[in-house]
Amino acid sequence: MTLAAGTRLGPYEIQSPLGAGGMGEVYRARDTRLDRTVAIKILPATFATDSDRLQRFEHEARVLSTVSHPNLLAIHDVGSQDGVHFLVSEFLEGQTLRQKLNAGLLPQRKVTEYAIEIAKGLAAAHEKGIVHRDLKPDNIFLTKDGRVKILDFGLAKQTAGTASGENPTLTHPTTPGTVMGTVGYMSPEQVRGLELDQRSDLFSFGAILYEMVSGKRAFKGDSSVETMNAILKEEPPELSESSLKVSPGLERIVRHCLEKEPSLRFQSARDLAFDLESLSSATSASSAAIPAARAEGRRSRFFGWIVLAIVLLAAAAAFWVGRTTVPTSNPVFTRLTFRGGHVAAARFAPDGRTIVYSAAFGDEPVQLYTTRPESPQSRELGLKHSSILAISRGDQLAITLNHAFFTANASSGTLAQVPLTGGAPREVAEGVISADWSPDGNSLAVVRFKDGGVSLEYPLGKILYKTEGWISDARVSPDGERVAFIDHPILYDSRGSVDVVDRGGNRKTLTTTFSDVLGLCWHPSGKEIWFTGSDVHLSSNLMAVTLAGHRRLVWAGAGEVRVQDISQEGRTLFIRGNRRRGIAGLFPGQKGEIDLSWQDWSLAGTISPDGKWVFFSEEGDGGGPKYSAYMRATDGSPAIRLGDGTPYSVSPDGKWVASIIPGEPQQLSLLPTRSGDIRNISQPGFNYDLGLWLGDNRRLLVIGNEPGKATRTYLQSADGGPPTAVTAEGVAAFSLWPDGKSVVAARDDNTWTLYPLDGGQAKDVKALFFLPALAGSVARSERYLFAALGSEVPEKIYRFDPVTGEKQLWKELAPIDRAGVYNVAVLSVTPDARWYVYSYVRDLSDLYMAEGLK
Predict the structure, then answer these.
(1) Looking at CB atoms within 10 Å, which of 164, 309, 431, 692 has the fewest?
(2) Claim to verify: residue 40 and residue 116 sit in the same structural domain
(3) Mean pLDDT across 527-534
(4) CB crowding 385-413: b at 16 or more within 10 Å, else e
(5) Active-site residues: which are they?
């Protein structure tokens, strides 16, 4: 039925048709009472006698009337006249997202802007218990003034209980097994006709976001059945493999939305909007230019950074207006360190003004200092090779002696106690990564290496949690009943989640897994845990999470920040880092070492036998969420991206690189160095930590674990197939014996165990030299093993003969510019040991105090 111009429906006068859809025709009309332009949707006459269609039409009005939000279509009225059923809404001028996409590819800036507004609208609907169930580009409207509106809630479902505790009108029931929605944007559970919740909309949002980024449908077959099958079983092409230069953070959000299993997606549109806001902030920060004169460079960058931080904070606060998640705050920042070097950790003393921190400035080793905000001077405490862990209420310091950074992210040493006023340290425990005092100062929570793993103990000796990964930032709650910590599933990798465990060993994970998360402390109230992390690797934000798992953004930082402590008065200590990992080495045609660093976190994997190529990964912001594997000619030519992951070894014929792809579980792929297709040879459920080619060019030595089992060493064919165990369960040996027929592992300080690759009987042999170094970074030539026995800079590398036991200092490795370098590791040498490559970490960081963060 078509309405002519001038037709009246109550106080509304029809002016002209706007369009038609499956649930009705839409007209432009004038509200004669308020003299405003409105849009009127008319239910077609053929549907007016269909009780189901009529019920859905009225249902849309009821649903939208329960929620008011700038990103949702506003409903003004609903009624019927002479058998004509109509719905009156705000009048919008612009175009649908579908029309916008048909006009061409969107800039990524616009994609993020639109995505944030869609997520906000969904969050408002979901908080009222409304699930849209038909989210697609056709139902998203872009107004001329730049707003985004979600339209057409005709298929929406509203649950009985909402986040606000209200009880809105329930919709008519949907028959179980009924498939409702639009093919191509349905969630897997929607395709199967299962019960839906808000996570179904988040999958549809992911499909829309993928299309906005790429210009292509995420799931599209030649028929509806094929499209549905793709939704259930297939993954859309990787955005990073296209020529679109999609940011790693944006691709990660898309992939997180498109998880087949609802429990693996974002759990709320609010969290999704949070991540998109953080991504937008990080992108803005990375593109902002901060002018500075050379003489005042560092100071100007800092003040520019403060201005940027305040701008970002204001943007974040504006986003949360009307909500209880982030109160506005105007923080004031005080810089506490001024020398060039690496700040490792910092804590407030009980007076809330004295600060104890550990740092390595210039060529000096890491040591303890004290300072106060009103003084630019720091005082040495006379404890070199030491780092601060905690300070008790009685001014007792918990520190590490012989402090060593054995990786870029982790350090350990001998736990000791010493009064702040001075005295000799009393040693307590070895191999300690983290520690914190109980509120009464009578006991310690300790994270340490123990019995082949990393354990969290509170008090010392009582294990509350143990992992094959590692644990950082253990902090005792203000009431002394819990320990919060960061659980890193992969040894020394900075990916992880914020967890809490009580005295009974009951552990709870409070956040999703971040790609980078370091730095954690309790808020003095005990109601929140503050931490710094990011899904864009080294660009981190300050966040807070409650024991119920409710997360909020406290402060959107620019670059890398690591929260250290909060005083009773609410002052916050944090380290502003500028960490980069580089690669250097000696190569054919060079008279001395040269630097071959590529982006921001270049981690050396291996060097080709002729020394003409190095294979490395980029694991920072530039590498993406799954890292990036590269090869680069040692003559300094530009690097070539091979695919995802970390390339640990190259095949003897030089055609394939074994790359570990991060994830849960991690996977093993073979990346071609020339032409060819990537081959994923991972076994279902198996978690891969390392893959090394053997000399026969047909097999790989892999380290990993089967589901529910401990890590061990396996053999796996390059053609795929299940791994075959070589070592006993729990033994991860990856160094070949000189004959190439066995792998060696340390049984104890006096004994090695040789495990034959052919599956024969393992045998013990006398240890000829100290072997614990084999658990770290070990290089191997045709005859020798190369390893460091310490962790100083420059790094002393020793050459070991596994047959005679001879040990000889081989080289001292360090980049030419040693400022801020605190870790040299990951060495690879050619078979003749003539050429080599290694990695180093440089961190020029500073300590700051912030007042006013809430």
Answers:
(1) 164
(2) no
(3) 94
(4) bbbbbbbbeeebbbbbbebbbbbbbbbbb
(5) 134
